[in-house]
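Hi team,

As requested, here is the filled-out complex form for the LLP run. I kept the field names the same as last time so the parser does not choke. Let me know if anything looks off before we queue the next batch.

— J.
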Amino acid sequence: MHHFRYQDSKLHCESVDLANVTREFGTPTYVYSAQTISENYRRLKTSLAGLDVQICYAMKANSNLAILRLFSNLGASFDLVSGGELQRVQAAGGDVGRSVFAGVGKTEAEIKLALEAGVYGFHVESEPELARINHLAGKLGRKAPIAIRINPDVDAKTHAKITTGKSENKFGIPLAHAAAAYEAASKFPHLDLKGVQMHIGSQLTSAAPFIESVKKVVPLVQELKKRYGIEYFSIGGGIGIVYQDALASGEKTWWDAKPESERPLTPEAYGAVLAPLLVSLGLKILLEPGRFLVGNAGVLLTRVEYLKQGQGKNFLVVDAAMNDLVRPAMYEAYHELVPLTQDAARAELKADIVGPICESGDCFAKDRVLPTAGEGDVLAFMSAGAYGYTMASRYNTRGKPAEVLVSGDRFELVNAREKFEALIAGEKIPGFLKT
Ligand code: LLP
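And here is what came back:
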């Protein structure tokens, strides 16, 4: 559910007419709904009531400082994957002491930064990483809190590029090696065995792979609790969202109309099946959701530049491009596209929705049917709140788009559109090229 809907034929985010946002800040612009994020957070938290749950928001999904502060105000901590993300948490006033540090390639500098900042747990992905963290903790005279990431070899049945829990993926330590890895870790003098972690993939729309992986790992968790007194079990993130009917899914009626068997995974269903498997562990349960919390809470507004008639094909050329929202080009991801102004009188148009970047991959959708649009019309890509701006680049020397946060009838720019000067700020022409 989310707070994007038409009021008097104008697309609103909460009580803000999005036309006012484009008038003030132009396009392409990401717009996020604070209320949607807060509600998603509370729903997920409530779905596992009865357990000692800590939500570590996977900030790679959307790491704007305003979004991080919102999560921090809600009581969330963070799942971070780089020194840069750690510094973002600090800059936003978040609690690093309750946050976890994941990733297969943590550098010495990053580990040192995280030790000094006092992260709650390092999520360790390999034996050599255990040795490196131990060594650096020793040098700083500290004990490093760690959890080993277990790869349960479960098929998450999602896109190949975002599945992580199969044995052929680079992530984690195989379940069969886990006991030995903990045994080895327990011998390191500067490591404190705090927990167990797993994460099987992203955009999961059914509960079955979650259930399968939790069931597979629980016996190990029980054993490790007995042996080392670990205090938490992180079951990762991965809850999927609705992309296909994104706008309609904002309404409760859309969900109610779906038979139980066809309903995409909800936090309530997730909690209902997982809580019984976890409650008897008597451990703190960490969740690392990213997409579920912010995905449907954001849109990318874009303006039509041209409607180009090709041979037997129409191209709707918009001012957003793959550098702003790469998911369609990278994962063949579907993002619904809706007009800012509803007009039932407009005929339907079938077109490829393309950006201005000089490659054919810069295509948001093929043969998409939508109400006829032309130069100057503004459209919204739905479900763009997760892995949108954070994956943006400056390809073709295009500054990254603006970001706006809405709360009720207020909206504020939370990230200015990048100017050309910022794009070239680090570059210089060396003396030997100057004549
Ligand atoms: N925890 C770990 C260890 C992760 O690797 C991830 C995501 C998450 C949590 C959060 O997963 P979520 O709840 O958001 O599904 N760029 C891709 C998604 C990559 C996900 C990477 N890891 C996309 O746009 O679909």
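Two things worth flagging: The mean pLDDT is 96. The two ends are 61 Å apart (CA to CA).

Thanks,
J.
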